[in-house]
Amino acid sequence: MLLLEQILNGLQYSALLFLLASGLTLIFGIMGVINLAHGAFYMVGAFCAAYTASLSGSFWLAGLAAVIGSALYGLLIETSIMRRLYARDHLDQVLATLAVVFFTNELITVLFGRSPPAMPTPEWYGTFVEVLPGLMYPVSRLLFIAAGALVAIAMWLLINHTRLGMLIRAGADDHEMVGALGVNIARLYTLVFVFGCVLCGLAGFMAAPLLSVEIGMGEKVLITTFVVIVVGGVGSVRGALAGALLIGMVDGLGRAYIPQLLDQLLPAEVSGTLSGGLISASAYIVMAVVLLVRPRGLLPARA
Amino acid sequence: MSRRVLIDLLCLATFALLPLLASWLHEPFLVSLFTRLAIYGMAAASLDLLIGYGAMISFGHAAFFGLGGYVVGVIGFHTSQAMPLWGWEGSSSALIVWPLSLLVCALFALVVGYLSLRTSGVQFIMITLAFGQMLYFVLSSLSLYGGDDGILLNERNTLPGLDLENPVQFYYLCLGLLVAWLLFCRRLVNSRFGYVLRGLKQSERRSISLGLHPLRYRLSAFVIAGVGGGLAGILWANYAMFVSPDMGAWHKSGELMAMVILGGVGTLIGPVLGAAVYLGLEQVLSLWTEHWLLIFGPLLLVVVLFGKKGLYGLLLSPWPRWRKPPVPNAPPAIANSEVRS
């Protein structure tokens, strides 16, 4: 039972990571920009959701506000700042987007205050369902997993079976050629960036009632998101899915089994302190191992 | 005397005469601020060795800063608690503790560098970040050493002939080490080793075909930079008499990168200026408003987007600065295409 529950917990974390990583990896794959500010849009989404829900009391309206809020903020940032960065080197990109993170954190603090209103949720949200005989699992987390799965399927359809998806794939391959064929490449870039921000907003909305909504929540998960896309292969959505599942599972199972394992191997006072660090570091250890074996990630975008 | 030498001497004179100025103005706080500048300047300059000369964009440089500080902190903790560390009762002598700490940093850099340098580009940025975070989490999980809260030190290390508890003497020690480090780095980048490093930055393939082994040079540079970051961490631990995992957190690495860019990539002295401006602005703006990042963020953006060579480059650029310098000896366009065909 513990194993199954931990797998579900891991899946829920994977869903969060996938929502963030798929957008980030597309942005990197197509525009070639390292976007440290990606987590900021997630935070904007979460704050919009919490604020709207506490004002209106409507759960679904909060979701809408989160998506629209982060999409608009993304549009603003893309048109004012990001598009100047696409041709720059990675160092400039890292710094400029770091500056956006600084700015956004303070902006949100000024607008909403340090502690946002707690997000009210409808009654059904807090209930449990019996997933398997004897295993009760909260609806909220199941909803999160379902959202992640839906987005994964939708993205697969979008990228492989629509004209826009074709342009995205072509843009990732050779954006100059796509531009030469008459596609408005600047608009495609904006579209992809805002699409990534919409996914961030969705993730922020899903996470707002479950995790703590706070300043700096974006950076915390962003670093792990980077781990996910590097593990999966930068620029590849399939890789992002594989990476998110791997890292989510390692985290979920690690939380359950690392303390037990260390307790058996080491004296109690050592294992207690070490296991906490090992759980937090597990994602980074996985990444280091993957990069050593396959420097370009598990499923790289281009062979 | 070239402008470059003039600027360098001016910086040195400002730093050297500062304690006099501080005592004249009755602002002992200035000495403390400039000690911070010198320490961060050293960390930023060592990162510049990687970014500016080796094209290795390390996003985990703060790890060495944190590790260097933590070794001092841990030894200080064991010494003051009379708790032997693997049978060694500890020491508070800088001559023992500091080299030990630098050795730990060098070993850590050797391992991290060897593994990270298997990758390049964005993967290198990310894997150095990952190693930095790994260290951060390990440090925060050390509950014996305060976990997230870190270690408070009772005293600074001792050095024969100097009283490190005296702020002015400690400041001059930091300044002396900073100048020595900068001179060492300058010699390094102008040596054969430095030229190989820069050659690798320009074209790895060409360098390999000249018979050079990239990993050997890059790894050496990585270790040297790690030692520089570690030395800065050691000084910080002694300055603040406090170490915490935040010293190695990723935003500290970001700050160090910002200092390098702000001052000028590949100039060594520039990052020291960058550190001074960064910390100075932080000081001034945070006195003015609690939300200083609201102003600092856009300011940083402007520098990245529009400042080409950082502060040092701006100081060295020909007057008047707002006019674009003429491109020297631009070859005619036709000749260029002829060469290609």
Write the layout of secondary structure elements.
The complex is a heterodimer of chains A (303) and B (341).
Chain A: H1 2-31, H2 38-56, H3 59-80, H4 90-112, E1 128-132, E2 135-138, H5 139-161, H6 163-173, H7 175-180, H8 185-207, H9 217-232, H10 237-265, H11 268-293
Antiparallel strand pairs in A: 1-2
Helix pairs in contact in A: 1-5, 1-6, 1-8, 1-9, 1-10, 2-3, 2-4, 2-8, 2-9, 3-8, 5-6, 9-10, 9-11, 10-11
Chain B: H1 3-25, H2 29-54, H3 62-80, H4 94-116, H5 122-141, E1 151-152, H6 167-189, H7 192-202, H8 204-209, H9 214-240, E2 242-243, H10 250-263, H11 269-288, H12 293-306, H13 310-316, H14 333-340
Helix pairs in contact in B: 1-2, 1-6, 2-6, 2-9, 2-10, 2-11, 3-4, 3-5, 3-9, 4-9, 7-9, 10-11, 10-13, 11-13
Organism (chain B): Pseudomonas migulae
GO molecular function (chain B): branched-chain amino acid transmembrane transporter activity
Membrane topology (chain B): Multi-pass membrane protein
What can be said about this structure in brief?
Chain A is an all-alpha fold. Chain A contains eleven helices and two strands. In chain A, helix 9 crosses helix 11.
Explain the overall architecture:
Chain A: It holds the Pfam family BPD_transp_2. Chain A is mainly α and 303 residues long. Chain A has a domain at 2-128 and 136-215. Chain A contains eleven helices and two strands; from the N terminus they run ααααββααααααα. Chain A has a two-stranded antiparallel sheet. In chain A, a hairpin with a 2-residue loop joins strand 1 and strand 2 (135-138). The longest helix of chain A has 30 residues, at 2-31. The model of chain A has no long low-confidence stretch (mean pLDDT 86). Chain B has 341 residues and is mainly α. Chain B has helices at residues 3-25, 29-54, 62-80, 94-116, 122-141, 167-189, 192-202, 204-209, 214-240, 250-263, 269-288, 293-306, 310-316, 333-340; strands spanning 151-152, 242-243.
